[in-house]
Amino acid sequence: MRRPVITARAAATFEPVGRSVATARAFVRDTLQGWGYADVVDDAVVLTSELVTNAVVHAGTAADVLCLRTDGGIRISVADRYPEREIPLQNTGQTVVHPDREGGRGLLLCGALAARWGVEYTAAQKHVWFHLDLPERPAGTRSAGPALPVDALPVAETRVRVAVVQIDRGGCVTFWNEDAQDLFGYDPEQIIGKPLTDFAAWPHTPGTGTGIAEALQLSRWEGSYGIRGADGRVVPVYASHLRVRDTDGEASTVCLLVRDHERAILQSPQRPPSADGTSAPEGRPTDPFEVFIGSPAPDDLDGLLQRTVERARDMLDGDAAYLLLATDDETELEVRASTGLPSARQRFARVPVEAGSGRYGSARMPAVHEDLTAVPGAVPLLAGTGMRSVVTVPLKVEGRLTGSLGVAAESASRYTNEEALRLQFAADRIALAVERARLTELEKLRRGSLSFLVEASDLLAGTLDRDQTLALMAQMTVPTLATWCAVYTVADQTSEPELSYVLHEDEDRIDGLKTLLKKVDPPEPVPTPGARVWTAPADAAHDAALRTSLRSLGLEESARPSKGPGATLATASAVGGETVVLPLVARNRVIGMLTLGKPTEEHFRQEILELAEDLSRRAALALDNARLYSERTAISQSLQRSLLPPELPDIPGVEAEVIYRAAGEGNEVGGDFYDLFPIRDGAYGFAIGDVCGTGPEAAAVTGLARHALRLLAREGFGGPAVLERLNAAILDEGARSRFLTLLYGELWPQDDGSALLKVVCAGHPLPLRLRQDGSVEPAAEPQPLLGVMDDLELYEQTVTLAPGDVLLCVTDGVTERREGTRMLGDDGLTDVLTTCTGLTAGAVAARVLRAVERFAAEPASDDMAILALRVPEIPAA
């Protein structure tokens, strides 16, 4: 067997932390998209996610991811550093891991999704690898059509316009000819330099078909999509893309576009079957399917269905044809292809299948309607199209209804049972191929959906911020699932739904959409699961746009414009399609609604609605978690703020400044605390302390200490008596008690401009006194801390601050600031304080804080409090 040739390689190593899984997914996705292999991205991302999770979460080691591009496909290997950890093997007597178990799913997925996979052990690593084959793309063919009479030629406008658009390697328009300007209404200066994706209405579904970015990278591509014109309406076009390079080697894509009903101008003719009808060019028997559908057959479902309706229309010389596919339960039919009808309006529209007489009772049997005007509503798909007669036949596989094929004409009595029989023969030829292609598309969609939900869950789990969660919900749905999205939130069961977030794929239309939705009553918060249709936005937009048009023509009575920006024609076009509402239910309560919408005359397909329903369940839980976190954070912050002292009092003749920092995210109060308060006329108390530990438990003792100090001091107790009683109160807390270091003092401003202080230092870092001459000395002596011993004998010391002196009090979060083995310490703090001569109390505290922050690169991990008291200098007479 020939060894595959490796043509590209990419590798990365991811640390053993949870966030590495998302990083690994992004690495694989970017690598494969950069190689141009978007067809296998979703499968590769899902398998990589599971295998990296096994390595970094379950094995607890770093993960080495290696991507190899070969001439035969893609090989991805995930290695961990735990070779002793074996994997479960089948057919060895071991129990295979159940899919609902937490671990082991990666190997099951490898077996289900990969073409080949395996495990390799080395002395240092275990490698799990998988190989994904690339889908084959058929090469194009040349052919010529015979001479035809004039009345058999395809119909086109008198003046045929072929838009020529050139796209650079970044997807931006570099050339826009006059026919493109006539077709879509944009002048070249309005569109050159902008991405084509800003104007293309691409019928793309996650995991299904080719996206516009991928189509522009292919050497050749043909198909249908839409271009949003300057008036906001979507112009269906048929396009032929050709990838070219200039003399400098720069690649670009040339796009030729015509109106969709003029597709024959650009569409490559298909190779006809052999002349004798018995043998193909290779000598094999002719497949009846190929006789009808042509060869080569399209390799994608949309192409196959479109070819089917065109051949059915030509076979019965009809004016229009359509094909509907049945849902899994055969209760509804979904429009998937049409010709001669407004396809943009009908695509993915759904109609019920009724067993008896009713709107679509003929779906399970061939039927001919000679005149639809005599039976209004018999074929709701053709209502308002001008079609009079229609023949419909079922598509069945093993007796099960899989779809319905119909051909219609504008004249009555056009078809008989003979045409129904011919069409049924054709339907029988293509039914199995259609079902096979549908199942293949469904499998790709489910794989893409799995990849989408994995990334969506990861993003939603990564935030507890309510506004960010709302934004993520909208950004994940637009444009992947819908053209626009609105999120309503419900505060409680008695509150009305509130419009909280609006997003449209065209940012210029967000404001108009938001204004329109605010004028419409919000949808009812019904807890019933599943998507339900909501017509209010489309109706309101249509009415407002109609009034705007009448006012512009001067035909509306009281033609005064309404206040504020009205719904323009562009806004009406943006929301004129199907709109659905999905409830956001968390903990058995409706907390909001997710509203998804399509532009004019577009519908959602059932698989997209099921994916959106799954996303809404995950988003609801994430939104409710964010709400609970916000509420608990607000309560916590409110309680913490109640433990902080109010504003500092003004002390005559003394400057005071406090800087406080609590350790831990979201904490406003920790184990360090301070206070400065009036005791009685002319006397003030101050305190700075440190409770053992940080967080809520330490904050509880902080509140006890601060309030007890104020109460005891105002009862007339001196410093030692205050601290002895506080010591007893802390010990009374029993198992909840914590020891406490505390510097407490009382201050009396003097008439001569000085200040008298009496301080007690119970196990706390000693206060430092800065004199005017720059000398620094301790202002107290150390004494036992609180909360340890029952009997304390404390004493107070008297300090007099002369004019210009500063008393600096700090907690150990300042002196014990570390970087490696270095510590700021008492000496370092003294050195900082010696440079503060002549500074105000606020400047002294700020300089100390700056010195602490600059001492180490890492943020502080301990609470910190700084209290500076300064007696101003007496101005010279």
How would you describe the overall organization of this protein?
The chain is of the alpha+beta class and 877 residues long. The protein has 20 helices and 34 strands. The strands form seven sheets. A six-stranded antiparallel sheet has the order 7-6-11-10-9-8. A six-stranded antiparallel sheet has the order 14-13-12-17-16-15. Helix 8 (301-315) packs antiparallel against helix 10 (417-461). It is elongated, with a radius of gyration of 38 Å. The protein starts with 5 loop residues before the first strand and ends in a 7-residue tail after the last strand. Mean pLDDT is 81; it is low at 89-103, 138-143, 205-209, 271-286, 355-361 and 557-567. Residues 265-288 are annotated as: Disordered. Residues 164-194 form the PAS domain. It comes from Streptomyces yunnanensis. Keywords: Hydrolase. This is SpoIIE family protein phosphatase.
